[in-house]
Amino acid sequence: MSRTSNSYWSIGLLLLSHSAIASFFDFTRFGNNPGALSAKLFKSSPSRPLVVLLHGCTQNGEDFAQKSGFLAQAERQNFNLLVPQQSLENNPHQCFNWYSASDYRKDSGESLSLKNMIMMAKARVDAKRVYIAGLSAGGAMTSIMLLNYPELFSGGAVIAGLPFPCADNLEQALSCMKNGPAPEALYAFHPQLKQAKEDWPKLTIWFGNQDKIVNPVNSQLLAQQWLSLTGAHPTTIASDTNPVSNGVSVRQWRSDDRGVQLQLVEIDQIGHGMPVAPGEEGGGESGPYLLKSPLSAAIAITKFWLLTG
After folding, report:
1. In angstroms, what is the C-alpha Rg of the chain?
2. What are the DSSP E strand ranges found in 139-279?
3. Helix, strand, coil shares of the chain as percentages rounded to 5?
4. Does the predicted model carry a pTM greater than 0.85?
5. pLDDT tens for residues 173-226?
6. Which domains does the chain have, with CATH numbers?
């Protein structure tokens, strides 16, 4: 190969590398960062919604955004995407520390770091609405953020996650993942529980009924907690007798004046992970904790939030 050909080849590789990373940039200088988290931001258009995506254990946030389908949906639906990242220094498995009191308390640790980066990103892109989604440990941290700062969000999505509060240490965390929290613990802890019912963000909860890592009872208890907070009631088309279609059961509850406030999505024959639909455009791709499913969570969640179009 000639030197000229080598030069063109090198330029091509540089262009491909730039293209692969051009969609995200490092998001720094967002203020106090006691949780020592980092983040990347995909900027779409000013005044469009901001979606915050929290990865699960062992995952790279940017890779998770791409393979889950959320980045494709951000590009197609023209919303901004903030992707926080946990470090190995904070947690040897790169899990968000949802079971650490210093991190789950309001305005402390990782909870405060996430709040500050969200507030700064919201201002940077001039977003009027903010949504948050998380998988597994990221789902548990999503529950924490929704209860700590409900006024910050218009909607949330917890995928294979846990309710808050659930644990104060690693031993309790493992027990909670296996058995779920004590139901009474979900209603007697938090000043935010006195918030007016109409102020709570809308929430969609996803789980696979074959999940052996996080017991699906956690999703059921999270739904019960959210019903208590919002006062929502079943829709006419979704109830405990809702028929299963293509292995997917969807139950929904609505408030009197805000439409559907809570959604619970159960998928047969999948385990612990994010449902993806590789056959659909922007539906994600399968891999570790990215599970082939009849539904793409990224597509369905953003539709539930009314971000489509």
Report:
1. 19
2. 155-159, 202-208, 233-234, 248-255, 259-267, 274-276
3. 35, 20, 45
4. yes
5. 999 999 998 877 776 555 556 666 668 999 999 999 999 999 999 999 999 999
6. 25-304 (3.40.50.1820)
